[in-house]
Amino acid sequence: xxxxxxxxxxxxxxxxxxxxxxxxxxxxxxxxxxxxxxxxxxxxxxxxxxxxxxxxxxxxxxxxxxxxxxxxxxxxxxxxxxxxxxxxxxxxxxxxxxxxxxxxxxxxxxxxxxxxxxxxxxx
Length: 123
Known about the structure:
Elements: E1 3-5, E2 8-12, E3 18-19, H1 26-30, E4 34-36, E5 42-44, H2 55-68, H3 84-99, H4 107-122
Antiparallel strand pairs: 1-2, 2-3, 4-5
């Protein structure tokens, strides 16, 4: 007996990867928020492009958060208690220090992290 998903036959390739049913349900064919891929699989369309977030910047933000944990005395999320305008002030400070050529801290990482915290608190 074939496998089914929501009442539709599901076909598996020999390597056990999912392959789309031969006939798409009517809801998928008419839904403008779903795309049909060349393989026949269906995929929700999203306005979020996580693949466009620069990975080096994201890694640097993570390093900066790890560095900040030393000052937060092991209290993850402590930054949420800081007013947004303070995050913006600290980001500006790091930007000016970076522009002035100061190399005593990772100012770019701090600007990125502070701007992310600022944005998170405003959204």
